[in-house]
Design brief:
Layout: H1 3-34, H2 36-43, H3 45-66, H4 99-134, H5 137-151, H6 155-166, H7 170-197, H8 200-207, H9 212-223, H10 225-249, H11 260-267, H12 275-303, H13 311-319
Amino acid sequence: MSPSTSSGAGAGAGTGGEVDAGGPASTDRPRRSRWAWLARLWALSTGRFGLIVVAVVVLTAIVARFWTPFDPQQVDLADRWAPPGWPHLLGTDATGRDILSLLMAGARTTVFVAVGAGIVATVIGVALAALGALTARWVRESVAVFVDILIAFPVLLIAMMISAVWGGSLWVVIWAVGIGFGVNIARVTRPELRRVLHSDFVLAGRAAGLTPAQNLWRHLLPNVAPVFIVQLSWGMAVAVLAEAGLSYLGFGAPVTEPSWGLLLAQLQQYIQVHPLSVVWPGLAITFTVLGLNLLGDALREATDPTLSRSPFATRRARLHVPEVVS
């Protein structure tokens, strides 16, 4: 066999080896890139803080579904206003109820309201944004006017109006926040949908025979996801605040349902005598709202590479030189 033949065979074997080696890597690359946003989210300090806070609240709500140190509604007048210590780690209130157990049980209410309001806001926001971006002109203008009218009403006012008809409950908070932030999501997402609607890949999908609903699901919604996620996280944070505020005013959770806002309302009248007891529900509300807001901002930055502020990403962007095709 001539040297040229053997070299050609070696080159062919080398090429074949490259193809074989590149096969699994090319298969794993989409799988790695699919979860790359999670690594970018954890690399951000705001993302870590938000994830930890939200995880703690959710886990507390799950644990409280099956176990709490004491019965949250158990009254023990002999042990009223016990200081923080053992066995009441955060003390007790005016009726002897364990504050830690009340906070754990209140986390269930908080998670229920936040998730419920997020689902309602998502459905309303996506529906209004799609109607305002993908339909005929007269429908788009009507939706825009309808959204502007609803935005003029604050969330708390909507909740009070609903509670005046159906009475105060957690469902009032969920629907009020869902409607209030659903229209906010629609107002912010609609211009982004209109912008993406004129992109080449959307036009190509339309030419390939995709229906408007298929284009919305495959191309439009994934490209407006960063904006949508931030608005949704803000809506869930406002849901936590609204539940606490409305329960404080008597329009939210009933007296028999543990709630951070209701606990805050019951303890604030003793703030001059027992100021530490008011701190615990206030800290729970503050950290939960802060965690949701920071998590939303970090999610937006992690899912949109153009917003990355990490030094490595900046350095890599500066050193990247496009290849010249000869």
